[in-house]
Each structure stands twice: as structure tokens, then as C-alpha cells.
Design goal:
The protein is about 30% helix and about 20% strand. It is an alpha/beta fold. The strands form eight sheets. Strands 11-12-10-13-14-9-15 form a seven-stranded parallel sheet, sandwiched between helices. It has a six-stranded parallel sheet with strand order 16-28-27-19-26-25, sandwiched between helices. A five-stranded antiparallel sheet has the order 2-1-4-3-5. A hairpin with a 2-residue loop joins strand 21 and strand 22. Helix 1 crosses helix 2, helix 17 packs parallel to helix 18 and helix 20 runs antiparallel to helix 21. The protein is globular. The chain binds adenosine-5'-diphosphate and zinc ion. Zinc ion (ZN) binds next to loops. The site of zinc ion has 7 residues, from loops.
Amino acid sequence: MGNLYADILLPLALKGCLTFEIPEHLEQIVSRGLRVVVPLGKSRLYTGVVVEVHNRRPNFRVIKQIQSVIDTIPLVSDSQLRLWHWIADYYMCTEGEVLKAAMSKDLLPSGEEIHKIKRISDSLPEIVYCKFTDSFSPSLLESLVRAKRQYAIAKRLLDNDNCMAMSDLLSDKNDKSALKTLIDKNLIEIFRQMPVATEIAAMPQLSESQIAVIEKLESTPENKNCSLLYGVSGSGKTEIYINQIHKCLSQNQDVLYLIPEIAMSVQLISRLEKIFGNRLIVWHSYLTKTTKRQNYARMSLLNRESLVVLGTRSALFLPYVNLGLVIVDEEHDSSYKQTEPAPRFHARDTAIVLAHQNSARVILGSATPSIESFYNATSGKYNLIELTERFGQSVLPRVILSDIRVATQRGERNSGFNKIVTDQIAETLSRNAQILLFQNRRGYSSYVVCKNCNKVQQCPHCNVSLTLHSNQLVCHYCGYSVPFQDRCAECNGELQTKGFGTERIEVELEKIFPQARIVRIDSDSVRNINDYIAKINSVTRAEADVIIGTQIISKGLDFNNVETVVIMNADSLFYNPDFRSTERAFQMIRQVGGRAGRRYNQGTVIIQTVNPDNTSVLRAASGDYYAMFCDECKQRQVFVYPPFCRLIRLTLNHSDSEVLNNAVQQVENDLKELFKDRVLGPEYPIVDKIRDRHNVMFLIKTHLGKDGLIQRANLKNIMCGWERLKVRIIVDVDPV
Ligand code: ADP
Ligand code: ZN
């Protein structure tokens, strides 16, 4: 036999695969997609994935051998490898980094951890079942009458066709010992098995306009696989997804249903579980290791039933079989972009590639589509499908703009609330309906300033002001915190808090409405997903009257009883020095407003602003998406921004600003030579120092299509020359 070699992908930031020799006893076994253990460096062991088997001896003196093979079935499919390869290439990172993002650590352990590794086929989610042994016959039941519990258990099992999950068979924990006795008597035995796939429940009835959407979705030509479903909030987009998932599953196709944030899954899971039972797989980063491994194992089973995965962006990495449909809900949401660490991928765009690679269809859904997607839809690249009405008797809320300056002049403003807002809250409370207050800033105040020397209290490690949280000053960038003192550290002057964060709104509101039950939902008050679920449920059960929150409450939530929504400060949304700020503010205001009056009574949205005449504010208020879209397109065409180019952002950072500046000069020269006037920078970001490291940015505007590909290849080339620069260089393709 000639020697065989395997290229192994490891979850490390290496440039490519490493090649190992396949020892003779493994030659028949090692194949693409399998998990193997290999030695690296002096003696440390790593787990990796086989990407290719070949007989080309690499040009090293010593070639190490694969030490062992873990599974008998592939952990990774060809289709997964294909997608990962694309991600690494497009987002300019290594395939190892993609692998690391794709697989939880315990699937690819290294060092000592390798001893704990489990075969994927031993990780399947199993349930313990009970059944009668052959020694049991129904006539024996009478002999148990005296042992009440044993009798009840046996009776229950008999009534359920002689097979039940143990958890269903036991009515309380005292039943446990009774069952044990029955097992000891050799009347009942237990066995473990994968749960039986649920029968899918009937599909919901759709309205006429929803049926029209389904017809359009299903009659799209083969070459136009991507549809943008632009439907106002509450129009029933989710019902349409459910209909389409239903059809795919019954045709034995997998479905991927992406959501931007795990927070959104809480209400969706119960909605989907009712219909799809255990054919629904949930995937996000907060699952336990065991659940993750079980879910992954279930998906990699050969000849399994078709499944629907509801997940956040990392669900893109799972092993799909016969993928029929990818749904990207709230496709405009910037949480779809991973910013740190690499791969800095955009889940919506990656989902479209995944679907394309597998000939699956895509539905992008949003009430406020991204400019990019809407542009693609109106220019004919995607299908545009619209739903303009809410479902049933629900109508869109009325929107009121409330001028902060006028209210102040008239003495009608109190602790951040215009009078019209407090009146509306009082009125809503009197009807026992709920109120949602949106403020995009957490903490108590936005910043703290000295009355005497005017110095804003700053983080010592970042170039940013500190935010007051109850009695601590906290840095939102690095987490630094100090106890709040009333006096300025520099001049001992009196300190003053400025601006309203969610915490302060809560405090002020308690003063005005002491009887109202208030719940605050932001990343300070919600430490984990269980906190969040508990809070959402308390709102659903009407145990809260007022919900105060940041963007976390703007997404996809479907509350029956929220009738008033207040946007506390619209202006802060518009004043971002980013070409997307108008689009973002529009989306945020429409999304938050969309939580109002989703069932019975018409809702009310009040927007507090100092610019009630500003065109962008007016458009967000009236929901004139087309006008906003057309204006934005004109601007972006003139100033060359997406969708009229693609952006690549380079961020250089180093703790020593001199070292950094030297590197910046070289990078600037190289970039200007290559991209001429299509490179912006060096620019200093607003927060130009984070964790004691200085940051400088460049923004490259590459062409669309083939020319863009050439530019990207050239960029990769010059970047090789920067490896000897001592600074860290972060590449972000399509930054958001
Ligand atoms: P969207 O996702 O567009 O915001 P949803 O799908 O959440 O809208 O629908 C809004 C509300 O209307 C939900 O409570 C949903 O259950 C209800 N609804 C929508 N379509 C139907 C339907 N065909 N039958 C019954 N209820 C529906
Ligand atoms: Zn800091």
C-alpha cells in the first residue's frame, strides 16, 4: 500500500489544514467529515475534522500520524464544508476560525479533555420508556389491588398500550419506589429509545391576503429563489412561515428558521412546538452542552426524519439534509452580523449562500426591510411580496409626535416625560392595558459631569464617558466600574447626572405612578435567558402594567394587551455618525411602535422629539418606508455606500500609539495605491481607545461583481505584507 494522508481542519486560527499520515490500521476508516485525534507541537492532542484523503506526501521531513478516529459516521457533511469554505474566503478569515465558531468546544476538545469525548452516536437524545415484561398478563393486575400505587401504575401502563415514557408513567415522586418494586418483581422493564417523531399538527387557516402571499411564494420561478416578504408588524408573517415549514417537512425537507436574537425565540418556541412537536430543534448559544450535543447528534443521524431548526446565526453551521427552505425573520436586524470574534459573518447573507448551495428557497421577512434587501427586491434580484394589513380586526396604531421643547416652554415636562405622555399613561392604566416605554440607553444617566470644571467623568481605559448605574459608574466598553461619589475626582466640584437611561426612567415613573407595576427589561436587569423568559411571561400574564426597555423589547414580541408605546427620545436614534443611522432609526421606531395594539383596540404610539418637523422623524412616524428608501438610495448612490458598493473595514489597534501610527502609514500607502479614492481613512473612531488600546480605521469601498472579487484578491495579497507589522489588524467585510 502507498502511504495515505489526510488534511485535517483544526479549530485554530491556522491558515489552512494540516496534513497527517494515516496509519495502516486506519486506512480503511479515515474519510472526509470524520472526527480524528492528532498530535500537534511537542505532544498536545487536538481533535479535528478530516477534509480530504489523498496520497500526496507533503514536503516536510517528519509527518505525524493520526492517532485515533472517534466516530464511525461523519460529524461534518460536504455541504457544511462547502459553506465554511465560502465564509472563510468571503469574510477573510481562516477556516479554522469558522470551524471553531461552528462546533461547540466539547465536540472538538484538546489536551486532557479528549479523554471525556463521546461518540456522536452515543449522544443522541434518548427517553426512558417502561413496558410490561413477558411474565405480565392482565389477570395479574388483580393481585396488585392492595398495593395501591403499584396497581395504579400498572393500570395506567395497560391503558396506554403497554408503553409509556417513564416521566409520564410516574404521577409523583412517591411512584418511583412503587415502579422499582414492579421492576424487581419482573413485571415491568425499562428501555431507552429516541423519542418517536411527532405527527405534525394541522396547518392554521390563513386569511385571504395570506393565501395570496403563499401563492406568490410558491409560483416564483426557479431562478429567483429569494423572496422578500415585506409585511407590516402583526400582518401574520409568522403564520406564513409556519405554512411553508409545514409543506417542506411533509415533503421530507429540512428548514432553517433564523431569528436575530435568542430573546425572540421565547414566544416563538411555544407557537412552533404546538404544531411541529419534537420535529422542532432549537439552537442558540445559551443551550447547555448536553442539549447542544444531543441536537447535533440528532441532526447528523443517517436516514432521519426532516426537521425544522429555529435558531440564531450559529444555526447556519448545522448539518442539514435536503434543505428546502431558509427563513430569515427580521432580516434587517443588525444582530445578524457577528462583529467579534472572526468569522465576522452576516447571517442573512450567509443564509442566502447556504440556500443557494443547496438549491433551497429563501424567505426574508421584515416590516422594515434593510435598504440592501429592498433594493435587491425592487431591482428584480429578489421577489417582492407585500402584506399591507394587520391580521383580523387589528389595525396599525395612531402615532403622535410630541415636541420636547414646546412642552418644556409651557412647563408641561416632568422628569423626561411630556404631559401628553403622562396623560396617556394614566389613561391606559385606567383601562388596565399595558404601556411600553422605549429608551435606547441603559443605566441611570447617560453621563456624569462636574458642575465646577465641566469635566465629564471618563473611563481610565477607554476614551468614553462613564454611565451611572444605581451607585456605580460603569464603562459600557470594558466593564470598568467605580463607586459613584458626589464629588469630582479632579476638583472636588459637585457632580451632576445628565440624560435619561432606563434605570432613571423607572425611578421617575415610580414617583409619578406609585401604584403601577413596572418591569424593566435591559441587559442589566436581564442577566440570562431565564430572567428574560420570566419577565416576558409576567408581561403576558398581565402581572406588569409598564414595561421599560432598550432595543431588546423592540423585536418580534407579540403581546395582547400593550396599547401604548412611548419612544422616550427619538433624536438620539438619528444622531449616529453612520451612513445607516436614518435607516436604523426608522426601523427601530417602526418596530417598537409595532408592539402597540396588536389585538383588539387601536394602539397609540407617542414619539418625544426636539425635531417634530424633521423629514426623517416625520417619515418614521408615518411609516413611509418608500420615501425613506428612495431618499436613502439617492444619498448612498451619490456618496457611494452600499448597496452601490461593498465595504471592508480595517481596524488597526495597539497599546502604543507610536507603534500604531507607524503601521498606519504603511497600511495607508498600500491601500491608497491599490484603491485610490475608494479608501477612506485613517479615521479615528469616536471611541478611539478601548481597554487601553488605540484604534484607527480604514474603510474600503470595493466594486460590485467581478471587479470587486479582483479587488478583494489584491487586498488579501497586500495584507500578507502586513504580517510583520506589530499591530493587530481586524478585517470586517460588510460591516454594520
Ligand atoms: P407578524 O409576524 O407579521 O408580526 P404574527 O404572525 O405574529 O405577525 O401575527 C400577529 C397575530 O395575528 C398573532 O397573534 C397571530 O397568531 C395572529 N394571526 C395571524 N395570522 C393568523 C391566522 N391565519 N389565523 C389565526 N391567527 C392569526
Ligand atoms: Zn472602559
